[in-house]
Specification:
Layout (H helix, E strand, L loop, with lengths): L1 E6 L11 H4 L4 H14 L3 E6 L3 H10 L6 E5 L8 H10 L3 E5 L21 E4 L4 H11 L4
Parallel strand pairs: 1-2, 1-3, 3-4, 4-5
Helix pairs in contact: 2-5, 3-4
The structure holds ligand CA2.
Ligand CA2 binds next to loops.
Length: about 140
């Protein structure tokens, strides 16, 4: 089982800014926790971050045949990107949408996810633990 974790814009700032919303854990800390949990469950992972929408699209396309599941925190592109939605839909690799914060309890523009309809499910609101829950969901995504 191979899981591709993709992180979108500004998530490289985690732990350094707005700790009241996003906590003090850095993306590197999250990656370490994900690797630990994945190893216990016998899953292999790749963990990437980019600020560019097109790079996320390219990584989703390249995942076909290489990864069993994509776990995607598309950050702000969640709410805006038809390109990401089309890529997820076209490639057909089961994709789990995740967020640190509970997007439904925040500003109205965060309530709408353009990618949710083409994802297997959504995990949000559990801080860094959303990523660990996603590892658990990913290993059972095909039954
Ligand atoms: O809660 C999440 O994981 C989000 O995907 C985070 C995005 C936001 O646009 C989504 O609505 C929900 C924002 C990521 C920005 O991360 C920062 C981290 C530290 C300081 C500033 C931004």
């Amino acid at each position: 089982m191979k899981i591709l974790f993709l992180n979108g814009p500004n998530l490289n700032l985690l732990g350094t800014r707005e700790p009241e919303i996003y906590g003090r854990t850095t993306l590197a800390d999250i990656e370490a926790k994900v690797r630990e949990r994945a190893a216990k469950l016998g899953a292999e992972i790749a963990f990437r971050q980019t600020n560019q929408e097109g790079e996320l699209v390219a990584w989703i396309q390249e995942a076909k045949g290489k990864f069993d599941v994509i776990v995607l925190n598309a950050a702000a592109y969640t709410h805006t990107s038809v390109a990401l939605r089309d890529a997820i839909s076209a490639v057909g690799v089961p994709t789990i949408e995740i967020h640190l914060s509970n997007v439904h309890a925040r500003e109205e523009f965060r309530h709408k996810s353009l990618i949710a309809p083409v994802c297997r499910g959504q995990i949000c609101g559990f801080g860094a633990n959303s990523y660990i829950l996603a590892v658990e969901a990913a290993v059972t995504v095909n039954g």
